[in-house]
Every structure is written in C-alpha cells, then in structure tokens.
Automatic annotation (TrEMBL), chain A:
Family per record: Belongs to the binding-protein-dependent transport system permease family. OppBC subfamily.
GO BP term, pick one: transmembrane transport
Membrane topology: Multi-pass membrane protein
Protein name: Peptide/nickel transport system permease protein/oligopeptide transport system permease protein
Lineage: Bacteria, Bacillati, Bacillota, Clostridia, Eubacteriales
Organism: Fonticella tunisiensis
Keywords recorded for this protein, A-Z: Cell membrane, Membrane, Transmembrane, Transmembrane helix, Transport
Subcellular location: Cell membrane
Sequence ranges assigned to domain ABC transmembrane type-1 in this UniProt record: 95-284
Pfam families: BPD_transp_1, OppC_N
Iron-sulfur is among the record's keywords: no
TrEMBL record, chain B:
Protein name: Peptide/nickel transport system ATP-binding protein
Family, per entry: Belongs to the ABC transporter superfamily.
Pfam families from the UniProt entry: ABC_tran, oligo_HPY
Localization (cell): Cell membrane
Organism per entry: Fonticella tunisiensis
Any one cellular-component term (Gene Ontology): plasma membrane
Entry-linked InterPro entries: AAA+_ATPase, ABC_Ni/Peptide_Import, ABC_transporter-like_ATP-bd, ABC_transporter-like_CS, Oligopep_ABC_C, P-loop_NTPase
Major localization listed first in the record, in broad terms: membrane
Amino acid sequence: MELNREENVMLEGGVEKTSSPWRNIWSELVKNKAAMVGLSIIVILILIALFGKYLMPYDPNTGVLAESLQKPSSAHIFGTDEQGRDIFSRIIDGTKISLRVGITAVAIALTAGIIFGSFAGYYGGKIDMYIMRLMDIILAFPSLLLAIAFMSALGKGIDKAIIAISIVTIPEYARIVRGSILSVKENEYVQAAKAIGNNDMGIIFKHILPNVMSPIIVRATLGISTAILETSALGFLGLGIQPPQAEWGSMLGAGRGYFYNAPHIVLFPGIAITITVLAFNLFGDGLRDALDPKLRK
Amino acid sequence: MLLQVKNLKTQFKVKGGVVNAVDGVDFEIDRGEVVSIVGESGSGKSVTSLSIMGLIPNPPGKVIDGEILFKGEDLLKKTKKELQNIRGNEISMIFQEPMTSLNPVFTIGKQISEALIKHKNMSREEALKKSIEMLELVGIPSPEKRVKDYPHQLSGGMRQRVMIAMALACGPELLIADEPTTALDVTIQAQILDLMLKLKDKLGTSILLITHDLGVVAEVSDRVVVMYCGKVVEKGTVMEIFERPLHPYTEGLLLSIPRVDEKHDKLFMIPGVVPNPLNMPKGCAFADRCHRCEEICKKEVPPLVEYEGRQVRCFRYLNHKEGKV
C-alpha cells in the first residue's frame, strides 16, 4: 500500500527536479522573514566584530575621568561610563568577545556532545550507561552555578570562561545527538552501510550523523545565544572577562551602581545583548522550520 | 564450493531466556548457483544470512558454533577488519525494504561509489563513472542524470535496482538477497528477479536468496533449503522439491500456494502455529502441526536423513528403504 502510493506520487509528479537538500533549505529559509532579519543582524554583528576598530570613535579602554557618566550626546552617542570611556566604542569592542565566546563555546560543546552522544546512542549498553550518567550528573546542577564552580577551579579569563560554559552545555548536545541516533540507527540503510564494509566510525560519522544534523544545528544556533548570555552573566559577576577589556555582561555589572543616575550605562549593553540573542534565536527558529520537511509548504 | 555453512548455530539472549534462532544449519553454494532458503517468519532464514555477513547484532545475538567457509576460509575466525574487507567486496547483500535501505542524505551515485572507493581504491571520478555504468547495467534510464538523484526521487523498484547496482559494483562472488522482492509489486518483482538472474550470468555471481515466496523460488533457484524453527527440514533441487516434497512441512507449504487452474472454496492452510521459540517442543518442532505425526515425533528430534540422494529431517524416512514411503 505504502509503496503504491509512493509510486503514484512519482508518476504524477513526473521527474522531479534534481536539487541539493541545502539549496532547498536555503530557499525555505529565505521565505521566513524573521529568520532573515536574524541572519542579517548576525552578519552585521560579524562585520562589526571583524572591522570594529575602524568604527570606534574613541579608544574603548581609555577614558577621560572629567567626562565620566555623560548622557548620550553628539560627541558620545551612547554616552560615557563611570571612567569616562565611550560606551559606543566599548560596545563595538565587546562584540568580538561576545561572538567569539558564543561561537567557540558552542563549537567545543557541540563537538564533545556529538562524540559522547553518538557513542552512547550507537553502542548502547554499558557505554551508553556510563556516558549518559556522567551527562546526568552535569545536568543535575544549575548550569550557571556549575560554570561559576568551574571558573573558581580554573581561574579567571576569557578562555576559561569559554571552557566552563562549554562543559556545562555538553549534556544538552549529547542528549539530542543520542536520541536522534537511536531513532535512525535501526534503519536498513545503516545495515546496508555495514554490508558494504564500513567500520563503526564510518557508519556513525558518514552515514548516521548527516541524517540527524537538523535538530543538532538548530540547537547549536540557539545555544550560541545561551552561551553569550552566560558569558555576560559571568562577566556581570566579575568572573570571565577581566577589565579593562570591554564585554557586554561586565559593562552591565560595572554600571549597576549608577543605574539611577545614569541608566544609559546599563541600557546600551543590555540592548546589545538582547539584539544578539534575539538574532540567533530568530535564525535558529527559522532554521528549524526550514530543516523540517513536514513544515514546508 | 564457494560457500559452505556447517552446523551454524546463532543464539539470541532475550528476556526470559535464550532463543536458538539458527540451530545447526548446513548447506553449501557452488559458483554460479542460486540457492534459496525458504521458510516462514521466524524460521531463522534472515538470521542465517546475517550470520554469514557477520552482521548479527551482538549483544543480544551471537554465533555460538559452526563454520562458515567462504572459498575455504572460515569467516567466523576472521577479524573485524578482514570481514570489513570482504563485505561489499566479495560478499554483498541486498535488503527487503528498498524504501529505507538507501541513505536519504546522499545521492545514489555517491552511495554506489562508496564501496568502489573503499574496496577498489578508485578515485572519486573513476568511481562515479563506474557507478553510471552500474546504473546502466541495472536498467536505469539516463544514468548520467540519475546518478545525481537522491533516493526520495526514485520509486521503489528503481531503488531496488540501485541497491543491486550498489551490491554488485565491486563484482562480488556471492550476493545475499534477503527478500529482495517482498516489498515490491508483482510486475516489478518479475523485473527485479529477471535482472538478478541476468546479472548472475553476466558477472558469474552466486546468489543466496532468502524468501518465503515459493513462486520466486521456483522461478530462479537451482537448489532449495527449507527451514523451520531454525533447522533445515529439507534440501533438494527445485525440481525435486516442487515435484515430490518429502517433508510434511514442505508439502504443506506447496499446498498453500493458491492456484488459478483449480477451483477452491478455501485455501489450504497448515494447522496450528509456529511454537514459541522460548519453549520449543521436546521432539520435532513441526510435530504439533503435522498430519503424519507419530509417537516418536513428540519425543525425539529427528535427524537429517539421507533419502533418494536428498536430505530430509523426518522420522518417516529413517527406517524406510528408498522408494518405499
């Protein structure tokens, strides 16, 4: 029955146009306005991160104390902070930190998560048990609390913040990967891949993983915004990025004492974080819809 | 002899005990021969084929005894690596479900190329060229274009052709076809069988055909192995089995084929059901369903008896001289 229906579809549809799945996903993504807004913001942020130093009107790290806590004006469009540094320049300078943290932390967590998750899902049994219990232990702690604990063990610094944030998010990726692998590994094409002489690594990484990439990619884009938020949180607490390096979270943290007199100090870094997180979320949402053939019109 | 399976035993550990899915199976395949293993669901025919490929999922399954001699070498004694070099190269396999046996994210060209790159050290371009040749060989129109298609763009019959192209790309000496036509509709079934036979003659591949469809067996095989509950119950040439089945189970199977030239109100059916694999009867596994069952059948497992140059697992032939039953 199933087959006949499929074959009828083939006959009625005639010869389908040959197209790559990536092109399909792209054309689907272009239709989604929210996702395109998200993507444009991400592109702009990346450009700012790359060429920011040409855009900064002032040195982000040196201020003129006499000009501290100034309201936004034509000289300082976002105003100045408590040390008289130009907030606009500092936000531009902080972009590369936030993006770098977001992208590297997710890349590390994703790689580790894919390795743990696919071994657990593919081999099952004891390997699965050990890996997933380890992941459960990490998940049992609130992620920010655990990140703070790692930071206090590792010491301060941006690289350590990246490591801490990636470790605490590994379980999320591992679980998604494991679940997806469980759902496809019983398919006959996996057995067919074995039957033409593939080894386990070839089967996992070449035949199974490409079939489960969509939930993983989506989780990763959404994960970037979480990672940026967590770096900001660590920065706000004085961990992570060290002064005078500008970072949105630590700018918020440093400005909280002046909130009533000079709200612009926290307002602009806050807006920067919100926009970035929103952009990645919008893009991630759109990507999820585009990757799911059932949602395609 | 290309393949000799001797006393093969494969077990599965399941909740509540151990299932002997394959319990002492012997058979052999000569070069250029088509041998069919016939049996109903759960008779151990697919497990036999997976055991030969070394693809029994472990745990829960395991080959516990026997030998699988391929060109005189025991496959069960080979390392994982050696087996990977044999699979897809010297022995390959096609599966039952053409809809799911191709990887949906790769073009069919890439999937056929894979084995060629792996086993024949071909470059990507050479492999793609050979893939196009293979697609042409299995009768896919405009193969240069089709090679770039994804599996979802092909129909079931086309996909099974692609599977055959994939399996035969490296020129294997043995092709194991596990119910290759079961999921296809009848006209396509005939085409696929025809194609397999044609390619067998052209490439000199031996075929081990796993099926429950006696029509398919009659059409393509040289010899037949009938299995029931993990054991071989009868072996013989196609002519022998269809003209004069010895085992009551084979007899029943043949009687249950609907025939168009005779008028029946009801189809023949073998009474009863297959025994629970966790709770096998003490004697012959078929005893409860057999219309010739005797006292001894319920007490002892019958041996495989030599009778008129054929082998059959039934007490009736044990003490009788040839031609007297």
